[in-house]
Write a structure and sequence with these properties.
The protein is an alpha/beta fold and about 300 residues long. It contains 6 helices and 14 strands.
Length: about 300
């Protein structure tokens, strides 16, 4: 939340990237002790070729910006340097799992706090290290708007799984995506190949996540037949388990979650879907008193039932 007109998001993000770790647990009442946040570049040099924005990275929120649960939303735009902002689980709660969080934003911006850092702290509190992915945007005008974000996800999963992040030796690496971030997360989870040429030893590891959490994922079904998945998303027995949360009245059809769940069910892949009676689109996890407030707890229960929250 911005508390004064001198708030400068790009400066703070740049400063964070220069610091190896910082204590954030003091602001999290569920944390048993202070935990760390560290920042890593996704690519050692320039990322794969794309239409790089000429404008500097910044919070594009205007005076009339969107408000959720009484709080503004940081709309991070013109991201050209992908980073992982890693919220390390407290040592006494560590489960050995990592989740890569992909905020939504229509492949135009990133809802950085609502669907990124706020979500990371929730997972951190249950022993799951959360890596918020600052993936490349805008890409919406590109012929394959999803390609650069999926490349960033695949590279992130490979880095984490291969031990490329100090202090992380994960048992599992999952991916969590909201809206457009959910579209990219599903594409990464179902991709039969790496969408870029391997560049180092990290890319010798599997780029597919071990599980997926999709919250109002966008554009996964055909316009003319919402019971069919789009080309490029293929489900089989090797597709990772997934959890879905969506609102029935979402302008981004809840059939993206329902149809994807149905395909997973037909192939015997463990999955859960929750379609709430209302809530619209882009609610994140801020408490509003509505039914969809419960999705984080339902997700935690699902993870626990899989045996993934055992220390």
């Amino acid at each position: 939340m911005r508390t004064s007109p001198t708030f400068n998001l790009p400066f703070l993000l740049t400063l964070a990237a220069m610091i190896t770790s910082s204590t954030i647990g003091a602001g999290d009442p569920t944390a048993s002790e202070p935990t760390k946040m560290s920042v890593y570049r996704v690519w050692p040099g320039e990322p794969p070729s794309w239409d790089t924005p000429s404008e500097p990275e910044r919070d594009t929120t205007g005076e009339d910006g969107r408000v959720v649960a009484g709080e503004p939303v940081v709309r991070l735009g013109f991201v050209r340097t992908p980073q992982l902002h890693i919220y390390h689980a407290a040592p006494d709660r560590e489960t050995g799992n990592v989740v890569v969080i992909c905020p939504g934003g229509g492949y135009s911006i990133l809802a950085w706090d609502l669907e990124g850092t706020e979500i990371a702290k929730r997972f951190q509190a249950i022993g799951v290290t959360a890596a918020v992915l600052k993936y490349r945007v805008p890409t919406r005008a590109a012929e394959e708007s999803w390609l650069a974000p999926v490349q960033d996800i695949q590279r992130s999963v490979s880095i984490i799984r291969s031990g490329g992040i100090d202090g992380l030796e994960p048992a599992r690496v999952g991916v969590l995506g909201f809206s457009a971030g959910g579209n990219a997360a599903v594409r990464a989870a179902t991709a039969p190949k790496r969408h870029y040429e391997a560049i180092d030893s990290h890319d010798r590891t599997d780029m597919r996540p071990d599980f997926g959490i999709l919250v109002y994922p966008a554009w996964l079904v055909r316009d003319d037949d919402p019971t069919e998945l789009i080309d490029g998303v293929t489900v089989d027995e090797k597709t990772p388990p997934m959890f879905f949360a969506h609102a029935r009245d979402d302008r981004v059809s809840c059939m993206s979650s329902v149809t994807m769940f149905s395909a997973l069910h037909r192939h015997g892949v463990p999955a859960a879907v929750h379609v709430f009676s209302g809530g619209g689109h882009g609610f994140g996890a801020r408490p509003t008193g509505q039914e969809h407030d419960h999705w984080p707890r339902l997700c935690e229960s699902w993870l626990r039932e899989q045996g993934w929250l055992d220390r």
